[in-house]
């Protein structure tokens, strides 16, 4: 698990390899990631947007951005947490993801970025 804290907001990430899949006659490696967002600050915040950079070891970088996460824009009061899972498809068996969430203080309407720590996506090592 990797973790990062920005302005009292803690992001924790776990990953899982889910095998391979064919899409449009191409082989992809499928990964799931599980994220927990903890509000350890004294302010209520709302997650408004996400920005991801998905790196593939074949030098392919995909940018994903948009409103909320998995169709939601959660509001976290102090000491609240929110968890969700999602996934990605890579053309190689090794990659990484990094990014940030845009949060808004619900009292002052100040917007700020919360860094998502870089995490690795890799298939299990095979040994003989």
Explain what you see.
By secondary structure, this protein is an all-beta fold. It has a single domain, classed as Sandwich (Immunoglobulin-like), CATH 2.60.40.1470. The chain is built from no helices and 9 strands. Strands 4, 5, 6, 8 and 9 form a 5-stranded antiparallel β-sheet that branches. A hairpin with a 2-residue loop joins strand 2 (9-23) and strand 3 (26-39). It is elongated, with a radius of gyration of 16 Å. It starts with a strand and ends in a 6-residue tail after the last strand.
Low confidence ranges: none
CATH architecture: Sandwich
The structural domain count equals 1
Number of helices in the DSSP assignment: 0
Cα distance, first to last residue?
27 Å
Query: Could you name the CATH class?
Result: Mainly Beta
Shape: elongated
Give the helix/strand layout.
Layout: E1 2-6, E2 9-23, E3 26-39, E4 45-56, E5 60-67, E6 75-76, E7 81-90, E8 94-105, E9 111-122
Structure characteristics:
about 70% strand; mainly beta; 5-stranded antiparallel sheet; elongated; about 130 residues
Quick overview of this protein structure:
This protein has 128 residues and is mainly β. The protein has one domain: ApaG domain (Immunoglobulin-like), CATH 2.60.40.1470.
